[in-house]
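Handout, section B. The chain below has 198 residues.
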Amino acid sequence: MMNDNPYRSPTAETPPPNSDRQRITVNRPIGVTILAVLHLLGGALLFVSQFLLLANLDTLDESFQAIGISPVLVLGGLMLLACLATASGVGMWIGAKWGWWLASFYYVYSVFRNASAMMTIVAMTNSLAAIGLGPEEYLLKHAGRMLIHFLLLLYFFKSNVLYYFGLEQFNKAKAIGILVGICLGIAATTWTIGLISR
């Protein structure tokens, strides 16, 4: 057109680098898509299982108390995981930065949770032996889960995944420190609540 001036300086119509308008065109990595769907399905199943536990709480209360686990902590943990899985699934699907943080936290928290389960199993070795169960199967199961969640966490630090979430410039070591610090805080709080509720 006659009005177009090839020597004109760029105007505000040209999006700056890394702008939200430009980032919309970034393709979601297939791994993030799969994990987003799994998180959404897992969150829904956790919500359902929590309601089933609530419906049968009177029956299960004795069982929880017998093994030294507070039903309040079990229900609270399930609610946290259900909300975390659902929210991180949505965040991953839309490529929001908070989606990356929630999903990464989910995997760090899962590593902590399975490590805690392994310590509990070791502490309960005599009780398991009394009912004819060995700890080896449970330890292997939780060790496998820890490894899977650790590998998924590493996946979230890949450059194409970080780029999809708009986090290619952030400090990875600081992010790990924040995630581990939050998990340590939750572990300390859970331990304190467990002592108080006994």
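Note. The first helix runs from residue 20 to 23. Compare this with the example in section A.
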